[in-house]
Amino acid sequence: MVSLETEHENDYIKRIKEQFKDKIIGIRKLYDDQWLIITEKDYLRDVVRYLADINSSTEIHIATMVGSDERPIRGKMSVTFWMNVIESGSSSFVGIRAYLDEDDLEYESIAQDLPGADWYEREIHEMLGITPRNHPNLKRLILPDDWPEGAYPLRKDFNYSESPAKFPGYSFTYKDSSCAIVPLGPYHISLDEPAHFRLYVKGEEIIGCDYKGFYSHRGIEKLAESRLTYEQVNFIAERICGICGYTHSTAYCQAMERIAGIEVPERAEYIRTLLLEIERIHSHLLWLGIASHLVGLESGFMDAWRIRERIMWLAERLTGNRKTYGMNLIGGVRRDLLDYRKDLVMKTIEKVKEEYTQFVEKLKSNRSFIRRCEDIGVLPYDKARAYGVLGPTGRGSGRKIDTRKDHPYASYKDVDFNIPLYKDGDVLSRALVRIEEVLESIWIIEQLIDSMPGGDIIAEYTEIPQFSEGLGYTEAPRGENVHYVMTGEKNVVYRFRVRAPTYANLQAVPKMLSGYTIADAPLIIASIDPCYSCTERVTIIDVKSGKRRTLSEDEFNMLSIKASRRRS
Amino acid sequence: MITEVITIIISILLITIFSVILEGIRSKVKALLQMREGGEITHEIYDLFSLLSMKGVLPTRTSLIHVLTPYMTFSLSVALGLSVPFGLMSVMGGDILVVILVVLAVAFIASVPSMVISNIYANIGASREVILVSTGLMPLVVACSSFVIKFGTLSIVDIAKSITLSLSDIMAICVIGYAVYVLSEFTPFDISRSETEIINGVLSEYGGRLLGLMEWSLYIRRFSLIMFFSTFLAAPLIGKIFGFSSILSHFLTLLLQIVFVVSYYMIASMVEERHARARVDHVIRLNGVFVLVGLISVVLSLIGM
Fold it and tell me: Which end of chain B has the lower number of beta carbons within 10 A, N or C?
């Protein structure tokens, strides 16, 4: 099926080969920084554990985990743990895969060793019916509470429009009758999207926490695999998030470009980088405003959002949308950055920099704000590593990881920037990382405008190979964002798997909450900058009525116009 | 007689209407500090009128106490307002002990329904309200003790007339100013009604007219406490220039009190703008510090400083 590749192997691949010898069925180099190791399912846990512990000084975490129903093409299902092995100059994604026969869909759970694998394994258990044996917490994660057992929506024989019968029930793990329960969510003013943090408290102190989420599960992966073409998936990918949508479409495009071997023009790469950094600035400013609001510092909220408005305006001038939607295409970007816009960008950025510097000085000198953020929600380095916590949350706990440096994509190899790093692991550290990242992003934009190359903005391509696979990755404002794509027949994706950073970060939140107070809870939850929509991306089914209806384009447009009129 | 009638009419208007306008001024100042235009200063009156014209919304398992509490809280808040001096007279005696007891009573009565209802956010809000008021009253009680020991009277007006520029008096006034800020529940002390943490806490189960009454009670309580504090500033100043016996000095004191109250609200808006909400443990610690300062003022007054 696959060969044992020997050339250009990195050190880790060699060591895995030596350690497991004939238990490794195949090794394949997919792309420069992507390797795939195929092993027997009985050794999957051992190989993943070996790689995760291979070097304590190297940052290694589960970048994503993909379960795939490959019965129509291989007669088996597959489970792949994609590990991000970060080393200066030679970082790579290593996929460790096992194929499972249909009549024995079990393997030994990785979550026993790596808590960061918990959600991934629960997800494939629900969505594909693959069972991680001896999983420490194999309860429902994504599907609605009334979804029946035995209906697996991501299997290929499950139609996207099916609506199975309902059975009620959900049980929480943490049970302590001596505690009072504070139900933070599903609808709570400090949560910008539905999520349920069940806090177990004594007095105001939080003793334990259970999380139930995935209320905004939209079925994007199933939709991509069922109804959309390669190009259309790009536009649904950016709707995964209302804040960092551009980073999702970029990750998807990069995965497709890698699979198809498309050389994206340099100018398009620069424009993508510019928009990614604009997105990072407005996302971080949004967070700073929300953090201020949560602790009652309204001036901080107003200042942050006023500055953010300049960035939103700039995004609209550059892309036609306040959000940077509709700019990416497989092979490049849709709109060029006209020369007269460069002045506009520089002037806006200059103004933002000036106002932002004043705002940050004011915020940092505000003792009451600092006191609310300091020494709360502490996530020490070892826990952050075990959970594979990413982005500013990981960097606030001392994890030196940033996909822009570790796996340079777009034009990040051409620009100079620092990665802010703090080690205290508290809310303040996460805030400081974001505060400094905004200034780094401004610096990156200045460099991009100065050295913007000429040329085309999109590459032509003719064919995308069938049943090829690859990862696309970006550093979203909340951390590493990974899209796995396996191409299929007739211009349709066979398997699309999105792992947004919040998916990894959110798992660590219950640990961050324990020992702190109810007053701290909203801020601790917000400190990871959770994006529930990003995390909850997967199957469209109207469970209430069982009916389905597709709007025509005209109907859709009419509804949009009506909604706009109501707002105005 | 005419002076008394006019004072009573003015005090009722100030307690019921001006206390709401002051909230509008506070919002306007905050908006300007945030570089926003903000609403009109009468906007709070409009909001309150809207709430009062709505039907009261009650929780599913409600009791009579839930319905009665907003009316009782409102009545007690008005009583608090009438207990503090307007000018050099007080409608209801103007005794320091009465003021302290009514403040305590308002807080406890406002918290009772939230303690008995099955809503964890209301329960936490009630618990925080009791902690805030009981620890916030401590510095007030200690600072007032300093005056009572020194001047041998419980009458607010008599104390205000006797205040000098001595160290103990200045310290006691500062402590009272702080305690009034805490008990008025301005940020960072708005812990019992924190929206983002406990969904308005003690108010979370109220809606419509009953919510309006609870809000109005808070406005009146704030205004009354600040009026109480301003007496200690206005009366000595006017007394020094015009004496205490004339009608003119009475009305000038009232006018100066109002100026101080408006100034206090504006300063409070600025302080609110610079502060994040405190946690319960922060509040207890800070109140403890001011109790100590109050105790020092007591010691100083005992040794005649």
Answer: N
User: What residues of B are in contact with residue A190 (Cβ under 8 Å)?
Assistant: 196-197
Contact: B35, A368; criterion CB under 8 Å: no
User: How many beta-carbon contacts under 8 Å exist across A and B?
Assistant: 77
Q: Which domain holds residue A335?
A: 220-535
For residue B224, count CB atoms less than 10 angstroms from its CB and return exposed for 0-12, middle for 13-18, buried for 19 or more: buried
Please report, for chain B, the start and end positions of each structural domain, with discontinuous segments joined by +. Answer: 2-302
- Nearest chain A alpha carbon to B200: A189
The whole-model pTM stands at 0.87
Tell whether the model's pLDDT for residue A539 goes beyond 50.
no
ipTM of the predicted structure?
Answer: 0.88
Is the same domain home to A165 and A257? no
What CA–CA distance (Å, rounded) separates A213 from A142?
A: 7
Query: What is the token pair recorded at A129?
Result: 């019916």
In A, which residues are within 8 Å of B278 by CB distance? 368
- Is the distance from CB of B140 to CB of B229 less than 8 angstroms? no
How many domains is chain A built from?
2
A384 and A479 inside one domain: yes
Is the CB of residue B285 less than 8 Å away from at least one CB of chain A? no
A164, A20: one domain:
yes
Nearest to A76 by CA among A98, A100, A97, A96: A100
CB < 8 Å & 24+ apart, contacts of A173-177 = A173/A137, A173/A139, A173/A210, A174/A198, A174/A200, A174/A208, A174/A209, A174/A210, A176/A200, A176/A207, A176/A208
Q: Cα B297 vs. chain centroid, distance in angstroms?
A: 22
- Residue A563, pLDDT score: 60
| CB nearest A189 (choices: B36, B199, B279) | B199
Task: Inform me whether the C-beta atom of residue A321 falls under 8 Å from chain B C-beta atoms.
Answer: no
Which chain B residue has its CA at the smallest distance from A181's CA? B120
**One domain, residues A298 and A414:** yes
Q: Does B120 touch chain A (CB under 8 A)?
A: yes
Q: Which residues of A touch B123 (CB under 8 A)?
A: 180
Q: Which residue of A has its CA nearest to B194?
A: A296
Q: Would strands A131-133 and A106-108 be described as parallel, antiparallel, or unpaired?
A: parallel
Structure tokens at A412: 């990040």
CA distance B275 to chain A (A): 6
And the tokens for A159? 């139609």
Same domain, A357 and A439: yes
HEC profile of A9-70: CCHHHHHHHHHHHHHEEEEEEEECCEEEEEECHHHHHHHHHHHHCCCCCCEEEEEEEEEEEE
Same domain, A312 and A394: yes
CA pair distance B9, B14, nearest whole angstrom: 9
Q: How far is CA B59 from CA A180, B54, B114, B115, B192, in A?
A: 20, 16, 11, 14, 19
Q: A181 lies in a domain?
A: no
Given CB atoms, is B118 within the 8 Å cutoff of chain A? no
Q: Residue A32 sits in a domain of what CATH number?
A: 3.30.460.80
CB contact under 8 A, A297 and B276: yes
Q: Which residues in chain A are closer than 8 Å to B122, comparing Cβ atoms?
A: none
B36 touches chain A (CB under 8 A): yes
Does the beta-carbon distance from B279 to A369 stay under 8 Å?
Answer: no
Give the per-residue pLDDT at B22. 96
- Each residue's pLDDT tens digit, A268-288: 999 999 999 999 999 999 999
Residue-wise pLDDT tens digits, A44-90:
999 999 998 877 778 899 999 999 999 999 999 999 999 999 987 78
Cβ contact B279–A372 (<8 Å) = yes
CATH code for position A500: 1.10.645.10
Residues in chain A: 568
Task: Identify all chain B residues contacting A180, using CB atoms and an 8 Å cutoff.
Answer: 120, 123
Point out the residue among B35, B274, B279 whose CB comes nearest to the CB of A519.
B279
